[in-house]
């Protein structure tokens, strides 16, 4: 006969679960703070890598995303690095880590895109800046394309936000001519996602037409 669990056992389990969640949130906050505030580049890179390693499974990503301030902090890191591109303050590795982690969060938790939009209303304009840049690392552009493709997997987000930024479609169309296959692959993913929405079909056709014209 199975042993009946006492109420005190259940309460203990809940307390342990809550304690573990608090530990995770504390570590997330500490790592984000170290990335932002560390004056040592290698140290900041170490913590950025650590954050990506922490967010390797769905459970951890959910715990990270559910605390909106985590996304706000990560978007802040992305915004800073995008803004200082081309200056001595720019850190390409930190930039790529921030984009890659956001992409992973959007892939696992589609609603993450709404949190990104809330954290930075001109996030897409900053994305265009990366695509237009002649000095941005190809890996940064590839990661940014992957992030955008994952954002486009959320149809509500496409219709209420992404589809209004027509410039971004033109930039993605131009990137299809890139010699970097990773970039091209992610650009094709973006157009594939967009094609699923009749609201954006005209923009997709326009972007593909642009490529045909420039290639002729």
Automatic annotation (TrEMBL):
GO terms, biological process: anatomical structure morphogenesis
Region Disordered, residue ranges: 1-26
Domain of life: Eukaryota
Record organism: Caenorhabditis angaria
Protein name: Uncharacterized protein
Basic and acidic residues composition-biased segments: 12-21
Gene Ontology cellular-component terms listed: cytosol
UniProt cross-references to InterPro entries, sorted A to Z: ARM-like, ARM-type_fold
């Amino acid at each position: 006969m199975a042993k009946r669990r006492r109420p005190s056992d259940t309460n203990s389990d809940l307390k342990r679960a809550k304690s573990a969640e608090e530990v995770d949130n504390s570590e997330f906050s500490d790592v984000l703070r170290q990335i932002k505030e560390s004056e040592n580049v290698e140290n900041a890179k170490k913590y950025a890598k650590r954050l990506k390693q922490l967010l390797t499974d769905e459970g951890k990503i959910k715990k990270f995303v559910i605390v909106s301030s985590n996304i706000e902090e990560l978007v802040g890191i992305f915004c800073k690095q995008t803004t200082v591109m081309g200056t001595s303050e720019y850190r390409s590795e930190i930039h790529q880590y921030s984009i890659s982690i956001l992409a992973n969060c959007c892939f696992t938790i589609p609603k993450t895109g709404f949190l990104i939009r809330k954290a930075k209303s001109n996030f897409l304009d900053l994305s265009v800046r990366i695509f237009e840049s002649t000095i941005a690392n190809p890996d940064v552009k590839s990661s940014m394309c992957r992030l955008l493709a994952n954002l486009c997997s959320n149809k509500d987000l496409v219709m209420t936000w992404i589809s209004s930024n027509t410039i971004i479609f033109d930039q993605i169309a131009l990137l299809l001519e890139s010699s970097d296959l990773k970039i091209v692959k992610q650009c094709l993913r973006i157009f594939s996602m967009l094609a699923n929405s009749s609201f954006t079909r005209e923009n997709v056709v326009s972007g593909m037409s642009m490529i045909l014209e420039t290639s002729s």
